[in-house]
Amino acid sequence: MAQCVQSVQEFIQDSFVPLVAALCSEEAERLTRKNNLGFSELVKPFCRLTSEVHMRDPNNQLHVIKNLKIAVNNIITHSPQPGGIRKLLNDVVSVSQPAEGLVTNVITAGDYDLNISDRSVKASVPWYNNWKDTLMELNTSTFYSATTPWFESYRESFLQSMPASDHEFLNHYVACMLVVSSGEPEPVEQFLKLSQEQHRIQHSSEYAYPKWFIPNTLKYYVLLHDVSAGEEQRADSVYEEMKQRYGTQGCYLLKINSRGSNRGADEQIPDPWSQYLQKNSIQNQESYDDGPYTVISNKNADHLISDGLDNDIQVDGLSNNFKAHPLQLDHLSDTSSSFDGTDYIKTTSSLHESKKTSSGTPHGACLTLTDHDRIRQFIQEFTFRGLLPHIEKTIRQLNDQLISRKGLSRSLFSATKKWFSGSKVPEKSINELKNTSGLLYPPEAPELQIRKMADLCFLVQHYELAYSCYHTAKKDFLNDQAMLYAAGALEMAAVSAFLQPGAPRPYPAHYMDTAIQTYRDICKNMVLAERCVLLSAEILKSQSKYSDAAALLIRLTSEDSDLRSALLLEQAAHCFINMKSPMVRKFAFHMILAGHRYSKAGQKKHALRCYCQAMQVYKGKGWSLAEDHINFTIGRQSFTLRQLDNAVSAFRHILINDSKQPAAQQGTFLREYLYVYKNVTQLSPDGPLPQLPLPYINNSATRVFFGHDRRPAEGEKQAATHISLDQEYDCESSHQWKELEEQVVAVVNKGIIPSNFQPTQYCLNSYSDNSKFPLAVVEEPVTVEVAFRNPLKVPLLLTDLSLLWKFQPKDFSAKHNGATKELACGNDMIGAEVIAEFLINSEETKMARLKLFPHQTGELHILGVVYNLGTIQGTMMLDGIDPSIGLQAGKLVYNGMSVRGRQDLEIQGPRLNNTKEEKTSIKYGPDRRLDPIITEEMPLLEVFFINFPTGLLCGEIRKAYVEFVNVSKCPLTALKVVSKHPEFFTFGGNTAVLTPLSPSASENCSAYKTVVTDSTSVCTALMSSASSVNFGLGTGSQPEVIHVPLPDSVLLPGASIQLPMWLHGPDEEGVHEINFLFYYESIKKHSKMCHRVLRHTAVICTSRSLNVRATVCRSNALEDEGKGDNMLVFVDVENINTSEAGVKEFHIVQVSSNSKHWKLQKAVNLSEDKDYKLASRERGKLCFKAVRCKNSGENYTFADIVFGNEQIISSASPCADFFFRSLSSELKRTHAQSNMFQGAAKQSFDEAVRLIQKCSEVDLNIVVLWKAYVVEDNKQLILEGQHHVVLHTVGKEAFSFPQKQGFKKILGNSDWEDLEQESSEMVLLKFFRPENTSLPTRPTPEQLSNLIKTSLHYPESFNHSFHQKSLCLVPVTLLLSNCSEADVDVIIDLRHKTTSPEALEIHGSFTWLGQTQYKLQLKSQEVYSLPLKACFVRTGVYNLGTHRVFAKLADQVTLFETSQQNSMPALIIISNI
User: Fold this and answer.
1) Structure-derived torsion over alpha carbons of residues 720, 722, 728, 731, reported in degrees to the nearest 10
2) Beta partners for 861?
3) Which of 565, 826, 1051, 1122 could form an SS bridge with 1423, CB 3.0 to 4.6 Å?
4) Measured distance CA(344)–CA(84) in Å, rounded
């Protein structure tokens, strides 16, 4: 049970006190009414004696009475009605609520913070979330002192309102005060009348109520004197007469009203009456006044007098104010067993009207502190001189009567000895006893005299004697099977045993259990059973037997009284939590039961409090169904009490948690919530929009898109993909776009990225950089994608869904600043899109895209979304639920009820983790994606691609068109496009318009510029030249950034232009994503936004076509003119197409070279038919002769060797465009690789090494142009394409596509391609150490061998007559060519040294005549002729290539010398004539 203010001993003593009746004359009542009090009320605060009292027991032993209290009540002649008692108890409980400020449910940040409502527990202390902490809280906090004042008030009122019964005498009157005023004409006669009236009430059969203790009731005569108005001498004389008539111990002169009513009110006199009058006042701490004779009860009064009914009836000049009981209902016929809530409301309203007359009147206004002392002295005198002697005398008389009647020779003190000596007759069990509760004893029966004596002893705290008497009476009653009497004796015997000082015997709890069972089951008297339970539970609680107390309290709960059951269940719950090991869950469960019974009893506030207290235990434990039930009940009770905010919060809790309820129940919850919310909003229709709990919004998933939606494709037109909300975020792709934008911005700003550069972000999400305010353009929509999630199993319907925003114009007055604009307002500044209906199905996540249209520049802040939340009509019929169930449920569904509210979009930025302080604390950066800055008008570009292919052959050239449209009102300029793959496309160089199309090119829709060739120029090359500057690849520029050739470089508003675009299929097969970034600016410069970009991603699928490999080697033939250099170029072309694209065969139509230093001169092995066809898997070999160009300027020399009738001009667009772009990409790739290996060692190379390396370098680029014939839809199409091979080094093979190193050395090219397809997972691991891979300072032998080129000139056969002359001398010329640009020292060694005997046998031996060693110095590019003579002695085939040549740079030491290797043997045939 909850903690009580009094101890259990004080509680029991104050529950059973001697009752004294008061009978006042009208004049006496008038005197007391000056103080707004009746006589019984006047003396009430002074009825407890402040000193000990002594009296003697029947054995003449002195007995001490401590803290004695008496009760003085007006006489009431009608017993209280049961209905009136029920109404009183309901009122007492309803007005007793927790103290102000201790709200039963404290809602904080959408969550509960609930506590036991008590004065000693702070409401802000949260309940711990786990059991261990909960137990610690209970053991260490002030929880044990939690009180329930409503229960104490109920208990007091219940005990006071118990009607007096015949089987016990505790509620019978012991004495009667007769009160007369000294101002009456004949006070003595008035006393006589009052005495006769009292005698008539007690002894006349007309009055069955009240009950009197003994026939000879003590009458005490009180003369009331008004000091301020009466004559003191007259009062004294009357008092003297009274003493002579009634004796000094039977009368008293009480002087009051020493202070006149007209005295100043500034004197502060204590008001001891307020606590008594307020405590049990139904009007919630305010007394009321119905007439001069109203007496309001105190907590020790047996009965309540409250409304003074029938006080207009006069009997013998006396006010018959005792005719009607104050608890009698207005309708006496109402004996219903339950309290009706409607009557309660009606009654309280009438009581509130009645209290208005005295709401501000103080009590005791005419009394001074001296008067207070006089009243206290009066009660003391009455008790000492009148009451206690009367009681002592009565006890003696009863004792003597019992001894004489029973024939006992000893006192009752020894009666218990026999009882406990073992001669006791076994008692029958309760179940064996027959129902004799109707047995009545006559008043003079000895058994009742024992009970009367026991009650008197109990009232004066003589508990030992009382216990003996109760024990004896109990035995007699049980023998007579008078069960009602026996139960009463058992009850009081148990209480007496407990209250005996020194506790000589343990508390006989089984006495109480038997009494309760008898009252409840046999006597059917729940009122007496309830009194037993209240007393016993307090006693058990004082002995820390909380479990027994709880069981006792629960046992008395029944269906006949909801209020009693609720109170007892609540006290049982407190018992569970006050145990040594608190049973928290039992506490919560029984609080729920108590709340349910409170609700049935009409005690809505207490029901709400119980549920809230239980909620703090169930919350957060995963018991979602229990939480839902509690929250639902809290919501309903709060709504009934018009605590709408609490109701909304409770229903909100049901909806926002992941509910495990079935769909029908969730629908009910939702409709209740909407109904309650509707009522809340109707109270303050002009207030701010409330926050709605549904649907959930995933704030971090909110995306913001700036700009118009992408146009769909129209026929052959394909719009630029740009960016849209339908695309998923790709971190790598986003980084690439940022790099492309930085690249083009750097080019525009001459290589420097401005410090205020902010990458363009059209779509902001949780992955983008949202630390800066995004930029939006006026008149272009801002789209916000909000992620809604419906956690319920019922669909939600959102109507009139739109964004909530705040806008601050940049150039307008400050009156708009900071003002929140509803959607209907401010359309001149911001237009908003409203979604009429947005349905979210059960447990669905759905995106809503909402748009704003800014019409002015300024700062826009998107705050959240606003919408009407509702359900779908007819849901309840679909669910099969009775529409009458639930709070206004039918209205909700069939009227389509919805409530308007908002949800804020609050996005948390990324956690900061840069500085030490940020790493050691939790700090988050800003996220400004919802705070765009609206900038001035900017141009807006749309790009369309016409005839853009999705599939190409590797190297295929295709012509398409690009359409640029300016859809804004501003002209745009500086249009550029940037891509990581510039070799994929071109808009044509400056020469694109110079070369006209040939008729056949137009006929075949060729992408190339062609001219008809002359038949005489078949084998020789056709020359032309071009500069890289003409193709946008001048020095210092980046090839990735391409200028789009707009006419006048401006695209006017609304204008459009189509430009041709040539596409070149990538050299590697597969799917390629190629990103284009179009960059453009406004003619007018803006401070916020300098440029705009448009993205496009082209997806091209390429399939195999041709594989081209090429090798260049030096020719040994030296021209007679002494030109010096010429080379042979071997081109190997293989058809690796797998016929997937329907390609029959490839035709090599032209091979072109491009270089600053070399050119192709002619084809060496050209076949006669001039038609090079390659079917699938066929390979063709071509050999060309290349010579050095005459001019070595910056221009590239283009040489075309044509195999057909049309020359493709390779120096014009698009052929030259793709050549230069691929060349640029190749140079960039090789430069990156060389940088990785060279590092700082590059600076250590000296000039000599570079000159030697240069000898073996050759910058010759081969372009192979081809046509392929494809059959598609029974039509033959001609495809064209070109492959590039870049030759860097003499003797090193080059390829038309990037190679994977490793297996190339072992496998052929086509085999490698097959292997690549079969085992795409095979990867060759490469290990290298960059720090040890710097280039050596010595040139390699291959590089040194290319310094000098040698050639022997001699006759292939020589005839000689060995018969005539035995020695054959043959003249041989050795030509030496210096291939470097420096002077070279050459040593020729003719000494024949053969290391292999096989060579001797095969070639024979000969001898060089003359010098065996020559030392020469060759100038740069010099050709030197050295005449030699070879001597042969017999016929045969000889190899003249036995000479050895050593070379070194003229200014270097011999450390670099190495032998020059001949490329092939020089064979001569010597014949004999």
Assistant:
1) 120
2) 806
3) 1122
4) 11
